[in-house]
Amino acid sequence: MSTSKSRRGGAYIMVLTITMLIFMLVAIVLSVTTVSRRLTARYSYYIGLYDLAVSGNEQALFLLLQSLEAQKDAIIYRSWEQVIEEELVGFVYYEGGLRLDSDASGYFRQFFIAEAMNELNAAWDGMFPHVRLKHRQIRGFVWNLNASIGTDVLTTEDSYRAITALTPAAANFTVRTRIYRYTGGYPGIPATVRASIIWSDSGYSVIVLDAYTIDALESDGVVFPVAPILGENLILFLDEFTLSMVESLRIVCVWRDHRCIC
């Protein structure tokens, strides 16, 4: 039994169509796989660099906190003394003791931050010396990291170089770390992370108002929410503040004149 030419032609077209669809599906799969692999490789490359850049920023924060810790008590007392000298004292009752009211607390915060920034500026040169880059000088530090991971078959070695820069403002800091991964002695595309270092509440410190201080405050017209007992001390809870890092931002570098601008 013979098959008509029209049927043979229809079968041929159907086979051709199915074959083309298969080729198209294969091409799509290969394309998606290629893009996915590129994205995965790019993510794997940058995620480690970004983590290292964040660690550089955290190192700068650690140095600031370490310098501040030794002077914290002195800063608190000097700030409290300024509140007294400016006659800005106001109290509210708090858990068996006293706290500054909202106005006095705001002034105390201003004095504390100003005193703390003065202390940090005094230690500035020791913590963050001038670092000379190609086109400018920064305050910060340059650090390097060499990593070697070995197995029975292969040993992988990575080399990194990072620059952490710190810029002070009136009451906060901006910190930025740019890190390069070196391959064959040549730097790759860097990753940059910038963050803000600000003052935030961290708890309370306790000081004792002796009878002499209480008498002096009452003479200045300060009204206590609880009547002081003659000859007894009062506990004052003062706000404490510390530096904390916020607003971490990954900065995308732009290539311009064969240089990476971040």
Keywords:
36% strand, alpha+beta, 262 residues, 9-stranded mixed beta sheet, elongated
What does the model show?
By secondary structure, this protein is an alpha+beta fold. The protein has one domain. Helix content is 43%, strand content 36%. The protein is built from five helices and eleven strands. The strands form two sheets. Strands 1, 2, 3, 4, 5, 6, 7, 8 and 9 form a nine-stranded mixed β-sheet that branches. A two-stranded antiparallel ribbon has the order 10-11. Helix 2 packs across helix 3 (102-122). The longest helix has 65 residues, at 5-69. It is elongated and about 100 Å long. The model is unreliable at 33-43 (pLDDT under 50).
Task: Name the shape in a single word.
Answer: elongated
> How much β-strand is present in the residues?
35-45%
Structural class, please? alpha+beta
Return the average pLDDT rounded to an integer.
79
Radius of gyration: 32 Å
Chart the SSEs and their pairings.
Layout: H1 5-69, H2 72-85, E1 91-94, E2 97-100, H3 102-122, H4 124-127, E3 130-132, E4 137-150, E5 155-168, E6 173-183, E7 186-187, E8 191-209, H5 211-219, E9 234-251, E10 254-256, E11 259-261
Parallel strand pairs: 2-9
Antiparallel strand pairs: 1-2, 3-4, 4-5, 5-6, 6-7, 6-8, 8-9, 10-11
Helix pairs in contact: 2-3
